[in-house]
Amino acid sequence: MAPYTPHTLPPPFTPFPSTSNASGEPPQPALLPASAPLPPPRLVTQGAESLLFRTAFLTLDTACALKYRPAKAYRHAALDRRLTKARLLAEARSLVKCRREGVRVPAVLGADWVAGWLAMEWIPGLTIRACLDHFLHQHHHDISSSSAPATADPNPEHSAALWGLMARVGRAVGRLHEIGVVHGDLTTSNLMIRPPPPATTIPAGLEPSDESGERISAATGARKTDEETIVAAEESEDDFDATALLQHGTVWLIDFGLAAQTPQDEDRAVDLYVLERAFGSTHPAAEELFQEVLRVYGESYKGAKTALRRLEDVRARGRKRSMIG
Amino acid sequence: MTSIQTLRLPHLPQENPIFAACFVGVQNAAFLRQQLLQGNSEYEYAFLDATTILSVNHLLAAVFRAVNDMLYGRLKSRNVHSEIVYCLSPNNNIAESFRRFGITESTTALLAVKVGMASHPNITAESVVAHLNSAVQGQPVSFNNDELQSLTDLDKLRKFYKLEGPKPQPKRPARQIATNGAQDSLETSAESRLEMECTILGLMALRGS
Ligand SMILES: Nc1ncnc2c1ncn2[C@@H]1O[C@H](COP(=O)(O)OP(=O)(O)OP(=O)(O)O)[C@@H](O)[C@H]1O
Ligand SMILES: [Mg+2]
User: Fold this and answer.
1) Where is this gene product found (chain B) (predicted)?
2) How far apart are the C-alpha atoms of A51 and A81, rounded to whole Å?
3) N or C terminus: fewer CB in 10 A for chain B?
4) pLDDT digit string (tens) for A224-234?
5) Which residues have CB atoms below 5 A from the ion given as ligand 2?
6) Nearest to residue A228, comparing CAs of A124, A128, A130?
């Protein structure tokens, strides 16, 4: 993981100088015994425009994805502030709109467009990209030893899991487009699979009560197990079973940095095209599997069929471009 | 005995602990409100109508923004305590935010919040409890999600944040229900409360944007 220096974090996430020192007065005694120090935010990824950290927000057991857009030294300062604000707010507004209309995206917990940060609900689980990588690695022999498509996967459960996931992806993208939002960067890294809430995997009547090991964590919109709610207990990719996630996980859309709320069929079709290309590079039987995404997408809202027709134009243009380029 | 909570928000300075105490059956809301209007420095609190608070995190999100704006010199109202009230609002109307989320003459469920300051080291949980016990005529209750659950006026919150009532799930073809499984809808009332919190926190964060 790339190292980071404190200045890659915005205030107040960098230790804030004590107020007494800032005003030049002698330091005051601490009011109350200091609580256990918070582990510093952990850098998850570093993109071209933004850094993504995992940390706690509001309470120690509310895990948060903190997206920070640092100032760009090469841009004029006033212009840079305007751009940072515009992008951050475009992302936050799309997330809030989606969430209130029931599309699965991280909740917005807080934002400061002057400092350049956006605090979102942390989605436990794996990106679809990571999940498919793990899955294909685990079941390497199942799929690549035969040239047959995934439907002929010797393990019918695995093939059913893949088809089921495709259906859930199609549905998720359909819901997004239905409410008039286009994503703008719909890759397999920007789709996540979250473990289902325990209640839905346990037969009715056998759920643990709230006292016995399960509780509801505020601001996450989901029931969580105790282990999941302790932020200090870090999460790693190995904590998740890729096969179980494929079978039972829910699909969440993330990274709305390029999203727009003025959708044309063209933009919707481009979303689908970008996703098709992204899947194409992650799975040997992608082309066939992606038909399932499109099938479910096509049935998911009223304008879906027009967007699908437009997809054919976008594909044709894409082929032409790749022949020239 | 008043039960007071001392809350330390991750990332905010140690010098700024948050003290929160909740009362029901409050008899002297008009008097308390009057102290705020007169700027009585003994009464530097965010006095909130607890029926407008959905959850602990709902309050904490407003506190975080207010303290953050205080630290960086961006308060829009008189002080960090009035700013907490304002930060609950989804819009820029400060007076309206006081009317909606702040104590009114008819308030009976009160949430009193105070921010500790390095410049006032004598403000502690004990001093706040002592003052509130003498100032508030009402029964102290714990400040937690269980207690709030019985106090919150959800209809009022839906109105303030322009939220729609619980929408009936659109009918889906049977085939799709099968592919999506039972996980597709977040249904129970605890869950719908959490969904409401998710939306409200987002609307509060966007205020002024
Ligand atoms: N809410 C979240 N919960 C869990 N993990 C997340 C969340 N948001 C982002 N991540 C992880 O961090 C990675 C990067 O986040 P994101 O895609 O939002 O940033 P980015 O691609 O760098 O953004 P941009 O394109 O706007 O610069 C994701 O692929 C995912 O692994
Ligand atoms: Mg991304």
Assistant:
1) Nucleus
2) 17
3) N
4) 444 334 454 57
5) A 190, 255
6) A124
For the whole model, what pTM was predicted? 0.85
A303, exposed or middle or buried, with CB in 10 Å at 0-12, 13-18, 19+?
Answer: middle
The answer to whether residue B33 sits within a structural domain is: yes
Structurally, chain B folds into a number of domains equal to 1
Would the CB atoms of B57 and A102 count as touching at under 8 Å? no
Backbone angles phi, psi at A117, to 5 degrees: -120, 155
Residue-wise pLDDT for B199-208, tens only, equals 999 999 999 9
What is the mean pLDDT for each group of 10 consecutive residues in chain B (209 residues)?
85 93 98 96 97 97 97 95 98 97 98 95 95 96 94 96 69 40 50 94 97
* Share above pLDDT 70 across residues of chain A, in percent, rounded to a whole number: 74
- Whether B64 is in a domain gets the answer yes
Write down all domains in chain A, each with its CATH number in brackets: 38-121 (3.30.200.20), 126-194+247-317 (1.10.510.10), 198-239 (no CATH)
Q: What is the CATH number of the domain that holds B81?
A: 3.30.2380.10
Domain-embedded: residue B140:
yes
Give contacts of B 25-84 with A, CB under 8 A: 55-57, 60-61, 64-65, 68, 71-72, 74
> Ligand 1 pocket test: which of A44, A99, A187, A224 has the largest number of ligand atoms within 8 Å of its C-beta?
A44
ipTM of the prediction: 0.89
Q: Which domain holds residue B140?
A: 4-154+197-205
Going B111 to B116 to B121 to B124, the CA torsion angle's sign is positive
CA distances from A93 to B87, B118, B147 (A): 17, 36, 32
Q: How far apart are CA B16 and CA A22, in angstroms?
A: 15
Residue B185, domain member (yes or no): no
> Are B42 and B131 within 8 A, CB to CB?
yes
pLDDT at A253: 98
The pLDDT value given to residue B78 = 94
